[in-house]
């Protein structure tokens, strides 16, 4: 048995052939060469033998393991002896303890060769152990850094998900520990930065840098190319725009300013604006740059209609109601899968919540007209949330049905102007679009109704998008505006809703 030297000489000192092997060993500490397996393989070549490394659990980390005495290996790993050496069956074997970053754990390096270990090979083994220990420590540090980054990223996502369900109190409480003052605001804007999936992590880091951590930067859980930024200030928004110009294939969509309880709505607006940004020279767009139908309807009548339509949800506990509304807002804008990822729940939970809202409102979200009308009511609820209602007007005014809300002169003019763009195409896009909406956005059923091929329906709908300057096949707010235009002109039947008539 041989004890390990208390003090190890500098690499290469006293070597018979100079420092060539030491230089090769040190190369493994370079950033591009840090691999324990490669070090073990190099050691085997350097001593003209066999080398293997076992971790504290007995798992082989590199090299072919020679026959070993398990009790001796355990003694070395436990630290009862620092190293061991013996000769048998025509081979010379050395066992050396390898310290791990965790003091309670250790591995064992086993080196076997036919010739006896001379001073040079003994030095190589000793210094190789030092390099392996450094690599293990560096690897643990790197892994710890990655775990910290992942935990921080998960925490940011958790804060966003709390905001999505209107739990601003919990969101502030979670954020206060790491980012004091981050959510000390009554309102904020949401921006979605789109790049490539491969560059997203770097893009997110740049978003954090330019905002000075005064914004909540989250890797979107639903779209691999998106970074979500919740920012209370205007200067941070300007800094985000500075990232877009010099970066190819990078776009920015922003929402209007909303209270923290309306972050889900702001997120939907930012995604809608992002679609517009793809057609802008500066690759950036902000929501609310065009006239929306809810602004063309009498606010008092619209508030009364919205309150009546959503009243069945008022009987629910506040937290449950907020959950259902937040899920429905996102579920009407995006797929169930995307909504589930954003909210951090399962897709079955999303569907169950939306089915509960369907039941309370006595409607069917498979009907695009029903989706459009409920989407309108949810938007009105958000936009009027901070506007005090005229109590006398709301209590004395007679209920106004949906048909009357949509039949005002301003609404009819808006609808006619919007859909008139389709009349310029000889393919009768307007007829195809009307049939497609009536069939719930199903191209096959619409094709049967029209007596054409399903692919023709899809091509017509796709052709209508640039004409109307709205996304249709993706669903969401753009499609619902087009549906409302058809309802306003009487081109579609009104949906079955508790308070729609």
TrEMBL record:
Alphabetized Pfam families for the sequence: HTH_30
Record-annotated PucR C-terminal helix-turn-helix domain positions? 338-380, 429-473
**InterPro entries, from UniProt?**
CdaR-like_regulators, PucR_C-HTH_dom, PucR_C-HTH_sf
Q: What is this protein called?
A: PucR family transcriptional regulator
Species annotation:
Streptomyces cyaneochromogenes
